[in-house]
Amino acid sequence: MEKSPDFENVQELAIALTKMASVTDSQGEKAFPAFLLSILGQIPYFRKNPSDLATIPIPDDPKGRSNVLALVRGSGRRCVILTGHYDVVQTSMYGSLEPWAFDPKTLSHKMLESLADLSGKDNPLFRLKEDLASGEFLPGRGILDMKSGLAAGISVLAAFSTPYERTGNILFLSVADEEGSSHGMKAAVPLLADFLAERGLEAAAVFNLDSAVDQDSGEMGRAVFTGSVGKTLPFVYFVGKCTHAGAPFDGINPSLPAAMFATEVECNPDALKEKQSAPGEEAPPPTILYFRESRSEYNVTTPQAVFLALNVLSHTRGPEEIMDAIGKIAANAMNSAISSLRERSSTLSRRVSGHFALPSGQPVVIDFDELSRRAERLSPGILEKARSFAAGQKPDDSVQQTLLILQELLPFSGLEGPAAVVGFAPPYYARAELNQEVHQTFIAMLRAELSDFSRQIGKSIRVRPYFPGISDMSFLAPADSENQRAFVRIQSPVADPETAGENWKGTGCPVLNIGPWGREYHQMGERVHKEYSFIELPKLLARLVRATLDLEGSPSIGKEDA
C-alpha cells in the first residue's frame, strides 16, 4: 500500500508534487489532477467525505484538462479559497541535466557536481553554486513555480481538517494552464459562486499561492501582494514600399523602422513609464516576444511588412493609454527611419554623381479597428473570413493568427507604406487590485497579523501592491473596466469572446498572493528558499486563513463527519 504523505513535512510534499511532471499542454498536465486527487484523498477528512473532493473538466478544452477542488467544511458560511496552478514550463534549457529536472534532490547533487570547478563571482552560475552549496535552496522545474505553493496550501488544508470542531470552511482549488492562457482559472471563476452557493457558503477571501523572485536576501520575496500586474500584448505592423534589393532607395524597407522601434522599447523602463504604484515599485519594462517579417519564401524583393508584438506589464496604465503610447513610438520610429534613409541616399548620390530619392508620402499610424473598417468597406465579411483562415492555419498560436489576419486585410484596406497598424494580440490579463475602501477591515487585519508574525520570526514580511508577474489574480479580482476590455476586443484581430465572459466578474472578496520565494523561475536555475517556503510560509498562511475566517466568525459547531 502506498505510504501516506506527511502533510506536516511540506518539503517532502513539494518534492512529491514536483516529481509528477506537468508541463503545460503535455500529457503530464492532463494526468496531474488524478495524481493530486490521490494525494488529497489520503487526508482522513476526504476518506470520510469523498464527495468534497472532485476534478472538474475544463469545458471545450481540446487538451482534456481538469481543475481540482477540495472542500473542508466546518461551521458557518465563510470560506477561504486557497488556489494555485499545477502546470509548469518546459525543461529543454536543462541540457544534460534534463533527465533530473523534476527530481529536486538528485538534481541538486548533479548540479553541484557540474559546477564543482566553477569559480569567479562574475560567472552567472556562481550564485547558483553558492545557493545550492549553502543548503538553503532546493532546485527543480516547478519546485518554485509553483509546486511549493501548492504544498503549503495542502498542508494548511490538512491541518484545518483535523479538529473535531471547525469554524469556517476552506476550499483548495488547483487549476491548469496558467503558464499558457489561463484556461483553468477562466473556467473556474464562473463556477465558484454557484459551487459555494449550492453549499450555503460565501467567499471570505482568496489566497493565490504563486511564487515571488528575489535575487538578494529574500526581503522582497517574503511578501503578500494585494494586486497583480496587468498584461497586454500590443503589436505594431510596419508597412513599407517594396522594391528590388538592387534599388533599395526606390522603396522603404519596414525593417528599419521596426528595428528603431525595438531599440526604443526593448527593456527600456522609460519607454512606457507610468507613475509608481508605491515607492520603489514599478512594473517590469516591455520586452519583444515576436519580431518577424511576413514573407513565406525567399526572393530578392524587400519585405512588404514587419510585425512585432511586445509584452507590456502595467500597474496603472489601461489598454487605451498603452496603445496610444505604442502608436507614438511607432510614428517616431518611422520618421527617424525615413530621415536616416534620406541622409543615406544623399550620401550615395554625392559619391556616385547620381540621384537617389525615396518615394514620397508621409508616415501614418492607424489602429486595427480602422484597418478592418477600411477592408470591410471594399470586401464585406473579409474580417471573419480572415479569422477563420488564420485559425485553421495556426490553431495553437493566436499571435501568428494575428499576423495572418493582418496580411489578409492589408490588400483590401488601401493602406500604403510607410505606415504602421497598432492593436492587441492575445492573451490579455487585467490588472488586479484589492479595493482599499471596500476591504478596510480585512486590510487592517492583514497588516496586524503580518506585523506580529514578522516579530515572531525576526524577519520582515512586506505588503506589496502588485505581484510582478502575470497571474490568475487577473480573473479573481480584475480592476480593468468593461470599457477597457471592450477596447481590447475592438483592437484585436483574433476574436477572444473570453474578454466579455463571466470570468471577468471576479469573486468580489479580498484577493491576495502569498507564496514561496526563490530565484530564476522558468530558467535552469529555478530554486526555492527552503526555510521560508517550507516552514514559515505554511505557518503564515494558516494564521491568515484563521484570522480571515474569524473576522465574522460564527459559533463553532461540531461535525459528525469530522
What does this structure look like?
- The chain has 562 residues and is an alpha/beta fold.
- The protein has two domains: 343 residues, Zn peptidases (Aminopeptidase, 3-Layer(aba) Sandwich); 199 residues, Alpha-Beta Plaits.
- The strands form three sheets. Strands 1, 2, 3, 5, 6, 8, 14, 15 and 18 form a nine-stranded mixed sheet that branches. A five-stranded mixed sheet has the order 10-11-9-13-12.
- The longest helix has 34 residues.
- It is globular.
- The chain starts with 9 loop residues before the first helix and ends with a strand.
CATH topology of the largest domain: Aminopeptidase
| Number of domains as seen in the coordinates | 2
Percent of residues in helices comes to 25-40%
Instruction: Note the beta-strand portion.
Output: 15-25%
Major sheet details: 9 strands, mixed
The number of helical elements comes to 16
CATH C-level label of the largest domain: Alpha Beta
What average pLDDT do the residues reach? 92
CATH superfamily descriptor of the largest domain: Zn peptidases
Describe how the helices and strands are arranged.
Elements: H1 10-19, H2 27-40, H3 44-48, E1 53-57, E2 66-72, E3 75-85, H4 104-114, H5 126-134, E4 137-139, H6 143-161, E5 165-175, H7 183-198, E6 202-208, E7 212-213, E8 223-225, E9 230-239, H8 255-265, E10 287-293, E11 305-314, H9 319-352, E12 364-367, H10 368-378, H11 382-393, H12 398-413, E13 419-429, H13 440-457, E14 462-464, H14 473-476, H15 482-490, E15 511-514, E16 517-519, E17 527-529, H16 530-550, E18 557-558
Parallel strand pairs: 3-5, 3-6, 6-15, 7-16, 8-14, 12-13
Antiparallel strand pairs: 1-2, 2-5, 4-17, 5-18, 8-15, 9-11, 9-13, 10-11, 16-17
